[in-house]
Amino acid sequence: MKRIRVLMTFALLAATVLLASCGGAAEETTMDETLPVVTATQVAFTPTATPVPTSLVVCLGEPPNTLYSYGNPNSTARMILQALYDGPIDHRGYL
């Protein structure tokens, strides 16, 4: 009986701490009058050019043994050949 009372006291204490930490008094924020107010007419918008990609980096587990499609390509070479020569059939083996 004493053990249950101690556990209930700890549970009540933990719940009180959790509820007290979650619900705090909201602080009122006021705007400082010393800061300048910027309006939309004062901001100059200059669009930046989007960079054109010049290269593509592909990380593979092993180098391809050949890029000749009629040879005996390994799985890495087949993935590269599928990306280069996109046809009506895709291999979905993920090997």
Reading the helices and strands in chain order gives: HH
Shape: flat
Radius of gyration: 33 Å
Strand content: under 5%
Low-confidence stretches: none
Number of H- or I-type helical stretches? 2
Largest sheet: none
Number of strands: 0
- The residue fraction in helices comes out at 25-40%
User: What distance lies between the first and last C-alpha atoms, to the nearest angstrom?
Assistant: 63 Å
Class inferred from helices and paired strands:
mainly alpha
Average pLDDT value?
A: 75
Question: Could you give a quick summary of the protein structure above?
Answer:
Helix content is 33%, strand content 0%. It has 95 residues and is an all-alpha fold. The model has no long low-confidence stretch (mean pLDDT 75).
Protein traits:
95 residues; mainly alpha; 0% strand
Structural features, described:
With 95 residues, the protein is mainly α. It is built from 2 helices and no strands. The radius of gyration is 33 Å and the shape is flat. The chain starts with a helix and ends in an 11-residue tail after the last helix. The mean pLDDT is 75.
How are the secondary structure elements laid out?
Blueprint: H1 2-22, H2 75-84
